[in-house]
């Protein structure tokens, strides 16, 4: 699943290629992926892309409606700006082309197989544009056309952005003390901290040297500061690695930059880049897994599988 660093890179990538261009058409391939009906997707046609933003893991393409006299049928001249907002979820991706296929997109219910499904295509006036596709059996990609991104409940309820100036050590301390829960869960909770998911929470906890099961209510001021630094360092490093890369290379860049996530059984590179001599361990759940290093994070003790026995905190 794309997380904050990849979504930020995708926003930069799309902004550089779409800003100032006119939308020729927006074609829906997966009816199931489209979560709104008013405004309709064809209200975007003829409009000019004015920017691309990020809200947590959501991408937001801002569109200025077509000027009076050139608007498509049914378009209201002088209408408020529109936003094409989408969440890629686990299997979604943005596929850019400098010369999109001219073959019309056939709408479908979205499909249930593992193969990639074309959910939406945006064509620009110069023939370029992008496809939103989704692979896997669980189709969760969500596409919205709205007048204001905060009309989407999951955006309106997002927590603090970890890249914002407001994300101070004290702000993190307040989140840690608000509810006594496992720190891994807090880092992944979008209503608390927007943009961090399963992969980067694993990375942050390694760099911070914390067990994923450590309870947030047990954090000392020194540990809180250490976690705050780890969040900033890991995200900044990942953003720098993703910056400037084309969309098609971002997935590989993410995998290549991971220290522990997705690396079960491989040597741990160490929380500070000095190999610790241990190997990366894994705990599996129904729909995900997490990776960690016992030496760096849990005092050398393997974590128990939460489905079978008591958790190690």
UniProtKB/TrEMBL annotation:
<dbReference type="InterPro" id="IPR010979">
    <property type="entry name" value="Ribosomal_uS13-like_H2TH"/>
</dbReference>
<dbReference type="Pfam" id="PF01149">
    <property type="entry name" value="Fapy_DNA_glyco"/>
</dbReference>
<dbReference type="InterPro" id="IPR012319">
    <property type="entry name" value="FPG_cat"/>
</dbReference>
<protein>
    <submittedName>
        <fullName>Fpg/Nei family DNA glycosylase</fullName>
    </submittedName>
</protein>
<dbReference type="InterPro" id="IPR000214">
    <property type="entry name" value="Znf_DNA_glyclase/AP_lyase"/>
</dbReference>
<keyword id="KW-0326">Glycosidase</keyword>
<keyword id="KW-0863">Zinc-finger</keyword>
<keyword id="KW-0227">DNA damage</keyword>
<keyword id="KW-0862">Zinc</keyword>
<comment type="similarity">
    <text>Belongs to the FPG family.</text>
</comment>
<keyword id="KW-0234">DNA repair</keyword>
<dbReference type="InterPro" id="IPR035937">
    <property type="entry name" value="FPG_N"/>
</dbReference>
<keyword id="KW-0378">Hydrolase</keyword>
<keyword id="KW-0456">Lyase</keyword>
<dbReference type="Pfam" id="PF06831">
    <property type="entry name" value="H2TH"/>
</dbReference>
<feature type="domain" description="Formamidopyrimidine-DNA glycosylase catalytic">
    <location>
        <begin position="2"/>
        <end position="109"/>
    </location>
</feature>
<feature type="domain" description="FPG-type">
    <location>
        <begin position="259"/>
        <end position="298"/>
    </location>
</feature>
<keyword id="KW-0479">Metal-binding</keyword>
<dbReference type="InterPro" id="IPR015886">
    <property type="entry name" value="H2TH_FPG"/>
</dbReference>
<keyword id="KW-0238">DNA-binding</keyword>
<keyword id="KW-0511">Multifunctional enzyme</keyword>
């Amino acid at each position: 699943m794309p997380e904050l660093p990849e979504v930020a890179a995708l926003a930069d990538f799309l902004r550089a290629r779409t800003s100032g261009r006119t939308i020729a058409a927006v074609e829906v391939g997966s009816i199931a992926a489209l979560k709104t009906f008013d405004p309709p997707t064809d209200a975007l046609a003829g409009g000019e892309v004015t920017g691309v933003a990020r809200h947590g893991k959501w991408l937001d393409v801002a569109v200025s409606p077509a000027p009076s006299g050139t608007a498509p049928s049914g378009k209201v001249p002088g209408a408020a700006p529109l936003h094409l907002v989408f969440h890629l979820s686990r299997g979604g991706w943005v596929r850019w082309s400098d010369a999109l296929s001219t073959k019309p997109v056939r709408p479908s219910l979205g499909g249930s197989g593992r193969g990639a499904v074309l959910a939406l295509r945006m064509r620009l006036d110069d023939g370029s544009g992008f496809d939103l596709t989704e692979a896997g059996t669980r189709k969760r990609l969500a596409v919205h056309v709205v007048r204001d991104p905060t009309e989407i409940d999951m955006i309106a309820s997002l927590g603090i952005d970890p890249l914002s100036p407001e994300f101070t050590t004290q702000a993190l301390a307040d989140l840690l003390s608000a509810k006594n829960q496992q720190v891994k869960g807090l880092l992944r909770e979008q209503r608390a901290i927007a943009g961090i998911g399963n992969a980067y929470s694993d990375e942050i906890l390694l760099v911070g040297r914390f067990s994923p099961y450590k309870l947030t209510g047990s954090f000392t001021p020194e540990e809180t500061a250490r976690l705050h630094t780890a969040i900033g360092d890991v995200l900044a490093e990942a953003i720098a690695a993703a910056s400037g890369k084309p969309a098609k290379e971002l997935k590989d860049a993410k995998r290549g930059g991971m220290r522990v996530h997705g690396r079960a059984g491989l040597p741990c590179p160490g929380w500070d880049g000095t190999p610790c001599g241990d190997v990366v361990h894994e705990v599996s759940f129904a729909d995900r897994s997490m990776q960690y290093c016992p030496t760096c994070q849990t005092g050398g003790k393997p974590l128990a599988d939460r489905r079978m026995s008591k958790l190690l905190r």
